[in-house]
Write a structure and sequence with these properties.
Layout (H helix, E strand, L loop, with lengths): L2 H24 L7 E2 L17 H28 L6 H33 L5 E2 L1 H39 L10 H26 L1 H4 L7 H26 L13 H9 L2 H20 L4 H8 L1
Parallel strand pairs: 1-2
Length: about 300
């Protein structure tokens, strides 16, 4: 992480801390039906084991998965990954392919289903401190999505180019493709849509139904879907055009569009930061979230 990025993160987090502390000190009682209330010690909106926990745990789990797959490659890529017709390839690589697709698919269905199901019963009115906590969780999901996109678009692709410039491919399911195309590319779709579902069901003042579908998520989700769809074109090009691995190959060009579309992720930080400033103003004015909802209605 560069010093500029570190300073930016410190500034943004400092703003969240300032708003949350002001909310906790000044927060008046909310109307009946508002979700909020007291938090356990150490589990408040801005505590590391509270609102920021998602931003710590989720990226670490994703990095652990990527590092684990990379270590697995180190042991079995050269010894079992060069001949797709061999029993060793089936044992060590097709099992990873099938397990990865099934695992990501199961996780996606469970997580999306939970977000939608619980979103139907969650309180419509939320206290300011609860909204700050949810924004912190949302930022954690955005951070986890950023880690996923980095792994799928930089970490494994650079390794993939080196691998296919060295080893001749005899299948689309190579040891370098399986973790990248069939684990982390699908995870990119899982994380982008899942993050949107969280915002849609937990942050009504920012992404509620009345706000429409945001361009920020339209671009970000389009990026992850484009990246997954590009897999087919990539394999078609390498199978029927030329097998050599050149980063500037014409059928690699759509990967650039992915990068442009993924820039929509920066708007998510801005949209939620604007809401934090709004919360700060509401608290200073002595308004509750219920007052804001009634005024908007």
């Amino acid at each position: 992480m560069s010093y500029a990025h570190a300073d930016h993160f410190s500034t943004v987090r400092g703003k969240v801390v300032t708003v949350a502390r002001a909310v906790q000190q000044i927060q008046p009682s909310e109307d009946t039906g508002t979700q909020g209330g007291e938090q356990r010690p150490g589990r408040g909106p801005i505590d590391w084991l509270g609102g920021w926990r998602t931003g710590l745990v989720a990226p670490l789990l994703l990095l652990a998965l990527a590092i684990g797959l990379r270590i697995y490659q180190q042991f079995f890529a050269w010894s079992s990954g060069l001949d797709s017709s061999s029993h060793a390839f089936t044992l060590h690589w097709r099992t990873v392919l099938i397990g990865g697709l099934l695992g990501v698919g199961a996780f996606t269905l469970v997580w999306w289903g939970w977000l939608v199901r619980t979103g139907k019963t969650i309180a419509r009115r939320i206290a300011h401190d609860e909204e700050v906590r949810r924004i912190a969780v949302f930022w954690g999901l955005v951070g986890a999505t950023s880690v996923t996109l980095y792994i799928e678009a930089s970490f494994f692709p650079n390794q993939d180019g080196a691998w296919h410039q060295t080893a001749v491919r005899d299948t689309a399911f190579t040891p370098s493709h399986i973790p990248m195309f069939y684990v982390f590319f699908p995870l990119g779709i899982t994380m982008t849509i899942g993050t949107y579902l969280y915002g849609r069901t937990r942050l009504p003042h920012i992404y509620g139904a009345a706000k429409g579908f945001p361009w920020s998520f339209a671009l970000l989700i389009a990026a992850s879907v484009t990246e997954m769809g590009q897999v087919a074109m990539n394999e078609w090009g390498h199978s029927l055009w030329f097998p050599e691995e050149f980063f500037a190959a014409p059928f690699h060009w759509p990967f650039v569009f992915y990068g442009w579309l993924a820039a929509g992720i920066f708007a998510l930080w801005a949209e939620t930061l604007i809401r934090l400033l709004g919360i700060e103003g509401e608290v200073a004015a002595g308004k509750t979230s219920g007052d804001v909802d009634e005024a908007a209605a």
